[in-house]
Amino acid sequence: MKWLPNSIRWRIQLWHGLLLLLVLGVFGVTAWRLQYNNEIRFLDGRLHLLLAELHVGLAQGGDAESPPEPQDDVALLLGLSFPDLPAISPRRTSAIPSFPHYHRIWWRDGMVKESFGAVPAGLTRPPNKGSVEQRTHEGFREVYQFTPPGECLLVGVPESVIDAQMRAFAAQVAGVCAVVFVFGMMGGWWMASRAIAPIRDISEAAQRISGGHLKERIPVAETESELGQLAGLLNDTFTRLDATFEQQARFTSDAAHELRTPISIILAQTQLALAKPRTTEAHVKTIEMTRRSAQRMQELIESLLTLAKADADAEPQREPVQLDALGRENLDQIRPLAEEKQITLHDHLTPATCRANAGHVTQILTNLLGNAVKYCRPGDEVRISTHRQNGHAVLTIADTGPGIPAEHLPHLFERFYRAESSRNRTTGGAGLGLAICKTLVEALGGRIIVESSLHTGTTFQVTLPA
Amino acid sequence: MRLLIVEDEPDMLDTLAEAMRGEGYAVDEAADGDDGLFKALEVDYDLIISDVMMPVHDGFELLRRLRQVKKTPFLLLTARSKVQDRIQGLDAGADDYLAKPVDLNELAARVRALIRRAHGNATPVITIGDVEIDTAAQTVKVAGQPVSLRGREYALLEFCVQHQGKIITRTQLYEHLHDENDTPISNLVDVHVFNLRKKLGQDFIVTHRGRGYSIGS
């Protein structure tokens, strides 16, 4: 409906107006009909009186000039029963001021016996229905009666005599309707304003919030009302958006920080090296630091790329993956490093197939096994096992390493979170390894949990759908 | 002058310490906020340079705790360079704020300015009698003639000049001229004082028997 204005308020007002007009119209027409019927009944009353007068006059055969004498009903009826009445003419009905009535009497054979007043042209004898009848005939209201001998008496009046009253009444009704309509529309406008006010508040608040004030919330006065629920819903959405934005901002700022640190080292070291003549050993140290920093940046960029890819690709390609076979492959790869650190590797790999992405699973295995070997001390053990459980493939990597303090466990999978109190050159990383694991596992529809206690060791369990 | 550098990045810590030692300062190192706070409370440093994002206590926390006890000049050095971060750092009581990556020359200049201001000196050149000490260039002139000083000699002279008019104890001199890894031999101070007197004039450094040394009125 293109022609409707866009404002809800105007639409409400329009529908309200149409409905009000309809109701007032029905009311006006009904009132007019009732009043019309009333007026017609009043006319009929007078015509009946006049008919009775005429009838009595006819029965008495009295002088037309003198009004009929009052008589009792029995005599009247008796008088009426006389078969042949002498012709007397013209009989009169009493004149009522501003009541331009007429009457006509027909003989039994249909000839006009007498007429009085402004009888409309072409008035014919009505059909005999045996009793006193009334009709509206071509704009005239008429009452007629057949006497037992067969004469027909008819009294009529033009309906136009009630026109003035009906017009006045119509004007009154129209006036009342107009007043009601005006007040109704004003009331409707006010109601619509009241109903829309909270919506406008919500929309203004929402606009402000989406304009950057993500911390603000829509004030919710009545939580039970529909609008309260809407506001609550919007607030929840804003809260989630805010959290996402904050997370994103933190991630970006953390990434920038992580990149800036090695850059700072390279810049400061090279500045120092170029400032004054130095020994070869000092230069070697500078080159070592620079190389280490570059390596760190490269690792960080790889990790960020992996995360970005996993974030962008919510539905990675999946194929059946032999978890046990991949586990063995990764275990063999890390074995030299473990032997060098005097860490014993154990495996208990029973066949377990999952529907996953081989690249993702390899990355998860590399990170978890790498972490285990990295943090274990000489003499510690790392155990990897796979098995099937309730239609899932389960991978467990447990170590007897130093364990992770309980306060770090809830944050362990957060990006850039580091559990160790100080970074050193062997265990240092950007704090993205476990975050990558979690992102990849979840992209594959699985889940990862960690259990750890200090001095006893840490266990990671990955469950992937088969 | 003795500085404390608190930085959790080992390579960065090494680099900063090396640069500051090159500027003639005695430098102590701390790898996290906890260690940093302990040392900062233990020793009266002339300046502390601290990173913000660190394990245990971050730079802000370290600064807040330190400020309850000491007014040591404090320079925050961080990879977070947003205006909001700088305001937060300065409002937490830092005397200066420098964003990484840092230019070592700028860092050295800021360190000098902070130390100078902490002792109420507005300009880098301090003149006492006919001895003129340029703390920025680290040069000394006597009656307009440049005098060459060794590193420790200059450090001792600058420390005394920055505290001119006050008596400086031998302990103070040990503390501010040597870092935590030095094993100072006590009569080295006497050797430096002897050499300075030879180069700048016998009356330049006054000995207060049993209490220490002083320069200027």
Number of strands of chain A: 12
The helix count of chain B comes to: 8
Q: Could you give the order of the helices and strands of chain A?
A: HHEEEEEHHHEHEEHEEHEE
The name of the CATH superfamily of the largest domain in chain B reads Response regulator
User: N-to-C terminal Cα separation of chain B, in Å?
Assistant: 21 Å
Helix content of chain B: 40-55%
CATH topology of the largest domain in chain B: Rossmann fold
Of all chain pairs, the largest interface belongs to: A-B, 25 and 25 residues
Mean pLDDT across the residues of chain A is: 83
- Major sheet of chain A: size, sense and barrel closure? 5 strands, antiparallel
Low-confidence stretches of chain A: 62-90
Description:
The complex is a heterodimer of chains A (466) and B (217). Chain A starts with 7 loop residues before the first helix and ends with a strand. In chain A, a hairpin with a 2-residue loop joins strand 3 (133-137) and strand 4. In chain A, the strands form three sheets. Chain A has a five-stranded antiparallel β-sheet. Chain A has three domains: 8-164; 214-312, Helix Hairpins (Orthogonal Bundle), CATH 1.10.287; 315-422 and 429-465, Heat Shock Protein 90 (2-Layer Sandwich). Chain A has eight helices and twelve strands. Helices cover 51% and strands 16% of the residues of chain A. Chain B has two domains: 2-118, Response regulator (Rossmann fold); 125-215, Orthogonal Bundle (Arc Repressor Mutant, subunit A). In chain B, a hairpin with a 2-residue loop joins strand 8 and strand 9 (145-147). In chain B, helix 2 (33-42) runs parallel beside helix 3 (59-67) and helix 6 (151-162) crosses helix 8. At the A-B interface, helix 4 and helix 5 of A face helix 1 of B.
Strand and helix layout:
The complex is a heterodimer of chains A (about 475) and B (about 220).
Chain A (H helix, E strand, L loop, with lengths): L7 H53 L12 H8 L21 E5 L5 E5 L16 E5 L2 E7 L5 E7 L4 H48 L15 H50 L4 H33 L6 E4 H18 L3 E6 L3 E4 L1 H18 L5 E9 L2 E8 L33 H11 L3 E7 L3 E9 L1
Helix pairs in contact in A: 1-3, 3-4, 4-5, 5-8, 6-7, 7-8
Chain B lengths: L1 E5 L3 H13 L3 E5 L2 H10 L4 E4 L8 H9 L6 E5 L4 H9 L4 E4 L4 H15 L6 E4 L2 E4 L4 E4 L2 E3 L3 H12 L7 H8 L9 H14 L4 E4 L3 E4 L2
Parallel strand pairs in B: 1-2, 1-3, 3-4, 4-5
Antiparallel strand pairs in B: 6-7, 7-8, 8-9, 10-11
Helix pairs in contact in B: 2-3, 6-8
